[in-house]
Amino acid sequence: MQQRIALVTLVVKDYDEAIVFYTQKLNFKLLEDTPLSAHKRWVRIAPPGENHCSLLLARAADERQAAAVGNQTGGRVALFLHTHDFWRDYHQLIENGINFIRPPRQELYGWVAVFEDLYGNLWDLLQPAAGAVLS
Asked: What is the rounded distance in angstroms from the CA atom of residue 44 to the CA atom of residue 82?
């Protein structure tokens, strides 16, 4: 049996502002934007080069979901964006106005810095060290 994670849901306040942020600030690709009803859309995005797992942007539909926007992991890093060129991507994200809340540092497992998305979800930008097993 072979399995894999295909989608990870990220609850957002608004579809369009989230699409703009992820595609223009993080350079993600909009894979799909399909209306499902007057208020619900199927919106998938992924970083360039990703062929297996994507993010499903889901607009908060009630107060409980709205309360989770930006804090889906209780203040922990929610998502890990791997790169082959940490410094290129770090400087590009800074240029795009991304707020890094923890500066770059080299760890045994690679170069890492923590940034927040437009809602405050925390992300690791990470270039794994050679031989590091992180995925």
From this structure: 18
Inter-residue contact 78 to 113 (CB < 8 Å)? no
Cβ neighbours, 10 Å, residue 120: 14
CA dihedral (24, 87, 50, 14) positive or negative: negative
Task: Say if residue 133's pLDDT is above 80.
Answer: no
Mean pLDDT of 91-100: 98
DSSP 71-117: -TTTTSEEEEEE-S-HHHHHHHHHHTT-EEEEEEEEETTEEEEEEE-
Domains of the chain as residue ranges with CATH:
1-61 (3.10.180.10), 71-135 (3.10.180.10)
DSSP letter assigned to residue 69 = T
pLDDT tens per residue, range 18-72: 999 999 999 999 999 999 999 999 999 999 987 889 999 999 999 999 999 999 9
- Looking from the CA of 73 toward its CB, the CA atoms found within 13 Å total 15
pLDDT exceeds 60 at position 135: no
